[in-house]
Amino acid sequence: MSNSTSSPGQCEGLLGTRVLVATAYSVYSVSGTLANVLVIYLVCSFKKLKTTSNAFIVNGCVSDLLVCAFWMPQEAILISTGRLENPSYRVFMEGVFFLWMTVSLLSHSLIALNRFVLITKLPTVYHTVYQKRNTEWMIAMAWVLPLAFLLPWLFGQRPYDVIFPCPQLRLYVFWGHEVPVSSSYTAILSAVTVLSQTIILFHCYFRIFRKVQVSLKRVSVLNFQVVHNLPCSCPRKDKRLGLYVLIVCCVFTLTTEPFAWSVLYGLFQPLPSGIVVGSWLLLCLLFVLNPFIYTWKNEEFRRSFRAVVGGELWKSSANTADPVVQTISQNDP
């Protein structure tokens, strides 16, 4: 790859962008680490939260935690100081970020498919599909598949030397004068992964919504509660259900679609730096929001959180499950 050159004016123009990205990484890192650690801790500490559904949520939180706790702080420091690490290490970090990001995206699909089977299929089908061994295999494949795509690319890299006159702004999935051309592989694969996950999410949630409307059940897509035998005239519940579905779909769409389409468009035409940086920061925001969109309306998560804050963790095992929690427990193997 040929060396890149930049004028002093271009270097000064990158200063504001570098400050913005470094600040965003710092804020994301702290808030995302705390949120993901909290969800993982609650699920591991409270027996009522140890369900098949929450296993997929924890899987996503683990990958998000790796991004927020390890990748983002390093990037914030490198962008702030302008240091350049070894090129081989840069390729390695690009690879592990792609792995963690893809696992996070796949976890969204696993959660949606789990709810789709739980709500739209018979209980016997759900128990058959989501046996403990099958669930473990699903989670394992969410890590193995991205790794299988990543290893051939990773081992096929060759050492290269690039001179950066300006402090580096590293957005791994984009390429240009800031990052190596080798990023095109992970860029295309990341965009395809985002688009495929979007299709799966919208299909599952649309089918869930239709099933609920026809069967007169009410389901919260954020806390995934199945409530039976509600009155037919529940317009507020209907509106609330639609709002929950909309929130989940909108959060995922708004944080991922700008990134995916800007990557694909960037294959053919250069994009303004503002669009590139904005779409990238929106994608990184997803790693912070994941724990909230699946737990903030879950009464059992909120009750467990209050128990931790109030120092009543020892009482959690003595709490009796409410009817909603019992319904979920009956559906989870």
TrEMBL record:
TM helices/strands, residue ranges: 20-43, 55-72, 92-117, 137-155, 185-208, 243-268, 274-296
Keywords: G-protein coupled receptor, Membrane, Receptor, Transducer, Transmembrane, Transmembrane helix
Pfam families: 7tm_1
Localization (cell): Membrane
Location (main, coarse): membrane
Protein's membrane topology: Multi-pass membrane protein
PROSITE patterns on file: G_PROTEIN_RECEP_F1_2 (PS50262)
UniProt keyword Membrane, yes or no: yes
Residue ranges of domain G-protein coupled receptors family 1 profile in the record: 35-294
Protein name: G-protein coupled receptors family 1 profile domain-containing protein
Species per Swiss-Prot/TrEMBL record: Staurois parvus
